[in-house]
Amino acid sequence: MRSTRTLVMVAVALIAGLIAALLAVRWVDSQVKNRTATSLASASKLIVAVEDLRVGREITSASVKMIDWPSDAVPPGAVTKMEEVIGRTVRAPILKGEPMLLSKLTQQGAKGGLAAVLAPGKRAISVGINDVVGIAGESLDGSYVDVIVNSTDGADAERQRSISKIVLERVRVLAVSQTPGVQGRVNAVTLEVSPQEAEKLDLARSVGSLSLMLRGPGEEGEAQSRGATKDALFGGPSRAPAPAVVSATPAPQRPAAPARPAPMAQPAAVAAPAAPAAPAAPTKTCVDALVGSERRSECF
Questions:
Q1: Exposure on the CB side of residue 12, measured as CA atoms within 13 A
Q2: What does the alpha-carbon distance between residue 149 and residue 211 come to, in Å, rounded to a whole number?
Q3: Domain range list for the chain
Q4: What is the pLDDT of residues 140-176, one digit of tens each?
Q5: pLDDT tens digits, one per residue of 231-263
Q6: Which tens digit of pLDDT belongs to each residue from 177-198?
Q7: Are strands 209-214 and 144-153 parallel, antiparallel or unpaired?
Q8: How far apart are CA 224 and CA 89, in angstroms?
Q9: In angstroms, rounded to a whole number, what is the distance separating the alpha carbons of residues 168 and 203?
Q10: Are 45 and 80 in contact (CB under 8 A)?
Q11: Cβ–Cβ under 8 Å, residues 49 and 96
Q12: CATH code assigned to 39-110
């Protein structure tokens, strides 16, 4: 009898627990649906990129799409209408899934291409760089770099010295050209420079190979460097100064200036007459002689 009651109580407890679990699941599900519905009702429509967009790229309907975005998380300057984006040019790199911001787009009506992103007074010039020491191009667009040239210094007539020197600093990268089929290898870049910097860069690429050195964000200082040579790198002797060139033609002789007469010496004071010296005593020579047993001494 008691075992029957125990089994009934256990069955009732299991049924009650199952009913409570089902009610809890339904309640959680209803809460999630309510919150989702509330979020969708208050969500905003934003335009995002469906692929990575580089500088100078013209935006088309195939490169962007509209998605729901929480209203309380809309970034400042985000574009909410498709017609405000189509036809504009990218002026700063935009990653896949990133909202389209007005600060990264050119003005409406501006011509596409790199000309639309150039700052006033700037020019765009493309140069080849050393692909062995080039920087990977995925994060190079829109960055700032220093340009280094490796060439030979012909100032020493006896030998040609290899030298590396920074020729341009804080130059903005507009576009990157990568080697087809080789991931991360850069063989050419397009830089934003002034006309004077363009002349200097064109001369540098004509005398040697160019390399890039990536700068940190916000770094404004200039590198105080005179360049690096093999002698300085390996501790070799420094270049001695060039010897002075001696001309073979003798220098014209100037006539000697006439000698000036020596000034006349002043007459010395008359000295008192010296006292007469005393006569010296005559010198005598003595000789000792032995005569028999007698010793005699004679002086003369």
A1: 6
A2: 6
A3: 39-110, 118-219
A4: 777 888 899 888 876 554 556 788 888 999 888 888 7
A5: 777 776 544 444 444 344 444 455 555 555 555
A6: 766 555 556 678 889 999 999 9
A7: antiparallel
A8: 37
A9: 12
A10: yes
A11: yes
A12: 3.90.1210.10
SS (H, E, C) the chain: CHHHHHHHHHHHHHHHHHHHHHHHHHHHHHHHHHHHHHHHHHCEEEEEECCCECCCCECCCCCEEEEEECHHHCCCCECCCHHHCCCCEECCCECCCCECEHHHECCCCCCCCHHHHCCCCCEEEEEECCCCCCCCHHHCCCCEEEEEEEEEECCCCCCCEEEEEEEEEEEEEEEEEECCCCCCCEEEEEEEECHHHHHHHHHHHHHCEEEEEECCCCCCCCCCCCCEEHHHHHCCCCCCCCCCCCCCCCCCCCCCCCCCCCCCCCCCCCCCCCCCCCCCCCCCCEEEEEECCEEEEEEC
Of 34, 93, 97, 20, give the one whose Cα is nearest residue 64.
Answer: 97
Length, in residues, of the chain: 300
How far apart CA 96 and CA 275 sit, in angstroms, is 127
What b/e sequence results for 285-296 when a residue is b if at least 16 CB atoms lie within 10 Å of its CB, and e otherwise?
eeeeeeeeeeee
Q: Could you tell me the maximum CA-CA distance found in the chain, to the nearest angstrom?
A: 187
Give the span between the Cα atoms of 149 and 199, in whole angstroms: 14
